[in-house]
Amino acid sequence: MPRVKEEHYENKRLEIMEAAKRVALKKPIYHVTMRDVVLEAGMSQGGVYKYFSNIDELFASLLGQNSLTSEVKDEINAIFAEAKDPKQVLHDFLTYVGTYIETSVRGSGKIIHELMAFYANEPERLENISSQLLKASTLGYLHTACIGFLQAQAAAKRIAPVVPLEEVIAFMATTINGIVHDAIMAQNAAYARHLMPAPNVDRLMHSLYLSVMSLLGIEKR
Question: The domain 3-53 belongs to what CATH superfamily?
Answer without folding.
Answer: Homeodomain-like (1.10.10.60)
